[in-house]
Structures are given as C-alpha cells and as structure tokens.
Amino acid sequence: MGGTVNSVNTNVDLTVRIFDQFYSYEQFVNVDEYDVVYSFLRSVFTTDQAAGNFTVALFRIAAKTGTNVLSILANLEGQGQIELTQTLSYYLNNMRSGSTLLGFGASVTPNYYTARNVLS
After folding, report:
1. Which domain holds residue 89?
2. Domain annotation covers residue 20
3. Which of 59, 82, 110, 118 is found 20 to 30 A from 27 (Cα to Cα)?
4. DSSP state at residue 27
C-alpha cells in the first residue's frame, strides 16, 4: 500500500524546536499544538514574524505557569490584536524583571528629588 499525505510516519520526530537566542531559551513542543497556536495567532496578527514571536511567547507562558498551551489559547479566542497584546503583556510581565516591563507607551518619569540623587 502506498503512502498518502494524511498518514502519519511514526518514525519521524513529531516535535518542533522553538528557541530564542537572545534569551538563551529553547523548548521542544508538540507539532500539532504548535500548528494550532501559530495558525490562530497568524489570523490575528498581520505578519508571520509577529505571529511567530507571540507563538514562542505563548509556549513560554505555558511552560512557566504549568498550564496547557491550548487552555491559554482558548482564553485568548475572541480577542482582537490590542486585547491579545495586553493579555500576553500581562503574562510576560509576570516573568520579567520590573525594570523591563512590556506594554507601556509612555516612559515613567521619576520623582525629581529621587532622580537628582542618582549618579550617572
């Protein structure tokens, strides 16, 4: 019997390696879950790069929180690009240093007297 496009070759590794060289981050995820997440985010964002970056971010959030990525994705469905960005920023900010928070359009102005005492 000949092979078809729809048959699964169990001899092939069915994982995807996602990585971020800047943060030295690497994770192997199920190819089916990756496709579902990337497809959803590609329908929301206008570029492949944005969808890819947020796909990696979503898997990082899932790994860090111990939550299934598809459960997180179900919570994101129905949100537009702005709401989705705000939600992901919230999750990512919980994993970052307080000095590098995401999602702020205006820079924070320090108290005059505090800033005056900082040596540069």
Report:
1. 15-116
2. yes
3. 82
4. E
